[in-house]
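Table S2 (text version). Query chain:
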Amino acid sequence: MLQKVLLVEDSTSLAILYKQYVKDEPYEFFHVTTGEQAKAFMEKNPPQLVILDLKLPDMSGQDVLAWMKEKQLPTAVIVATAHGTINIAVNLLQSGADDFIEKPIQANRLKTSITNHLKRNKLEGLVEDLQNTFNRKKYQGFIGSSLPMQAVYKIIDAVAPTTASVFIYGESGTGKEVCAEAIHYQSQRSSKPFVAINCGAIPRDLMESEIFGHIKGAFTGATTDRKGAAMMANGGTLFLDELCEMELEMQKKLLRFLQTGRFTPLGGSKELSTDIRIICATNRDPLTEVNEGRFREDLYYRVHVVPIQMPPLRDRGTDIIDIASFFLKKYAKEDKKKFKAMKRDVELKLCNYAWPGNVRQLQNIIRNVVVLHNETHVAMEHLPPPLNQQLTSPSAKPQVATSQSVVSQTPQEEMVQPQHEVIAPQSLHEHANTQQDIDTSIIRPMADIEREVIQNAIDHCDGNVLNAAVLLELSPSTLYRKKQAWEAYEESDS
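Corresponding structure-token output:
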């Protein structure tokens, strides 16, 4: 789709001339003569670029620009100025305009300005899309921005619109059903039912009835006909959790159903058909189950088309704090408690614990705290076993001391102050033409200060990047990227 350029100019003759300049360019060029017309146009379909004249019949260009900024339109603005209004144009640049062009406008100048700003607008849009895609903190029921979860979100985005079978595996409590629901609600089947069955929680002699249904009299207690999950999920998604718990004979019937889309209810003689998508999950290693004869190999290859590995909570960095904070606020609101946040030492404790029960265990821990206590901040003494015992994570580092920490424990003091007085921006501006009056030795590049603060925090945490990230209130992935960039630079420099 072509990008749009809007010219706001009350002179019809100039507008015709400008249109002639750009008639062969690869974008759409529109023209309005008043500020109100410009507002109406942009409200209906915001263009990528506006060329704005300062003097309009009904209002000034400054008024239009102020309105655009108030509406937060994703539109670049080039101010068209007459001779003698350059100072006004400069003020408008400070108010949010992106460029100015002086009248009379030459063809090459106009085309170059438009092309450059459209390219920049497009790049900024791509960057924003990438940031929205790869820095998502929440996603279809998930909470977390760690790199392992970003990878899961990306796979879900790719597989959801397709009809491919998905096999989700991971430890208990990692969110396999949440993942299955995310796939369903991102797909074209989202308006249809999502039906979940836990194959490990249903008695073996009832499994066939649960999935395929039964007719009256099929077995003792079958007093009426009953639809199974396969028919209830018609048009939608059937999620089979803990699939490796299913007995072999039932696996054989399931395989036939997946291959043909047809089944016969228990005790019935008429074959039925249904249109569903199958998503499976297990907390076991499916290949091990195949090799040991507990899971059919042909069924494995039928359902194991797109695998998704759910990461354990201990590998998700500061996602632990985000999830704990979510549950804390949720339960505090439900139970009318005063809890608002966690103390810093509690956050470090949570991040260093191994979490064998994953998100489900963390949820129960926070529930316990809210039920038994009523403070504004969760403190160490509020934590139940095993969190109130010695750290159990094999990779846990000693906790960070707070008495002489290089990094402060309060957000207001987290940046280490430089040892020398830094000249204020106003002073630099006042002395721009008298550089000899400035002692440049007392000014340090911001990048050097940032690196020093981060490195001091990591060193103080005995090399534990996760602890340093918690104290700095940064993502661990951010610290890792910066460290890699510094190391790569040092290698190339040497």
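Notes on Table S2: The longest helix spans residues 107-134. The chain has 19 helices and 16 strands.
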